[in-house]
Structure formats: C-alpha cells, structure tokens
Amino acid sequence: MTGRRIFINNSEQLIYLLTGDPGTGKSVALLRIACDLIAEGKEVFLFRNEDRIDVPSVVWWLKNSPKSVILVDNIADFIDELRTLSEACRSDNVKLVVVAAERNKRVGGIVE
Question: How far apart are CA 59 and CA 84, in angstroms?
Fold first, then answer.
C-alpha cells in the first residue's frame, strides 16, 4: 500500500490518497486514520459504496464545521461528486480535506 498527497485547486483543498492491491488493508487504514483524526478533535465523515455525496449539504457542513475531514473508500466511485464538491468549496472559500482509498488498477481515473 502506498500513499500520496494530491492538491486540488489550491492549498485549502487536499486529497490524501491510499492505493494498493485488493486485500492490502486500505479500508482498515482508512478506519484507523478516522480514529486518529477523531482523537485529534476532528469530525470525520466516511462515504462508502452505497453512500452518495450530497454536495450542497457537505459544503454547508464544512462551512459550519471547519475541523471536518471527509473519508472516501473506493474514491473512483465518487470522483464526479468530489470534483463538483471541490469546485463548490473553492467558490465558497471553504477548506476541503479528503482522505481516500482506491485499488491500484482504478487510480488512473483519479490522478490526472
């Protein structure tokens, strides 16, 4: 498993991406990161396969709770919503921090 930091739009918008082959512990690492962030006083929201990102609601929440971090398992399933979220946050001057996980073979659609 590897990790990388991806900047989107500006320094107020970050994606930390964990990648690896199936079964390497990406989802478990994401949950451990969530626990660490909560211990630091952050608010964490995890989006998984069946969940969808309601962009206006997330922007509102991030505006009103700037210590929030969005976690996304299987980020390739959410890439269009995350791009829309990123644009909305940028236009509203809202900080966006995402920690995400994805399998190696699906990373090409995420990292351009």
Answer: 10
User: For each of the chain's 112 residues, which pLDDT tens digit applies?
Assistant: 565 555 555 556 788 888 899 899 999 999 999 999 999 999 999 888 777 889 999 999 999 998 999 999 988 888 888 889 989 998 999 999 999 998 888 887 665 5
Contact 83, 111 (CB under 8 A): no
Q: Which residues contact 95 (CB under 8 A, 6 or more apart)?
A: 12, 13, 62, 66, 89
**pTM reported for the whole predicted model:** 0.83
